[in-house]
Automatic annotation (TrEMBL):
Superkingdom: Bacteria
Natural source organism: Rummeliibacillus stabekisii
InterPro entries, alphabetized: DCC1-like, DCC_oxidoreductase
Stored Pfam families: DCC1-like
A Gene Ontology molecular function term of the record: protein-disulfide reductase activity
Transmembrane parts of this sequence: none
Name under which the protein is recorded: Thiol-disulfide oxidoreductase
Lineage: Bacteria, Bacillati, Bacillota, Bacilli, Bacillales
Length: 129
């Protein structure tokens, strides 16, 4: 099974992050689902992801990763030098997540909120579940 990235479908920063992952994942390893969609809701139930979670979530090998750990594990799976960011996993989790939370808390203010979702090309669309 492919790793699945759950993201906030209303957030411009999250949308940009998904576009970034697609661009740096030429093998199409990662699949995507909005937290607000039907599939996202089903995955929340299946993996017991709290409804209070509105940040990036990675489901990989039937394990759920949140916040900075999800972001770093995604970097590890990308092509190019982005893999080196996984090194930051050595930073203690509370520190990593504190930085992540600052960005997450301000993402709508800094990057805006989407009124509609992007329409991916047919080639990319198959990676959205």
């Amino acid at each position: 099974m492919h790793p699945v990235v759950l993201f906030d479908g209303e957030c411009n920063f999250c949308d940009s992050s998904v576009q970034f992952i697609i661009k740096h994942d030429p093998k199409g390893r990662f699949y995507f689902s909005s937290l607000q969609g039907d599939t996202g809701e089903k995955m929340r139930e299946k993996y017991q992801i709290p409804s209070s979670i509105d940040s990036i979530v990675l489901i990989e090998d039937d394990k759920v990763y949140y916040k900075s750990t999800a972001a770093l594990r995604i970097c590890k799976g990308l092509s190019g030098f982005w893999k080196i960011f996984y090194f930051f996993v050595v930073v203690p989790l509370p520190i990593r997540n504190a930085v992540y939370d600052i960005i997450a808390k301000n993402r709508y203010k800094w990057f805006g909120k989407k009124e509609s979702c992007m329409l991916p090309s047919p080639n990319i669309r198959k990676r959205f579940i």
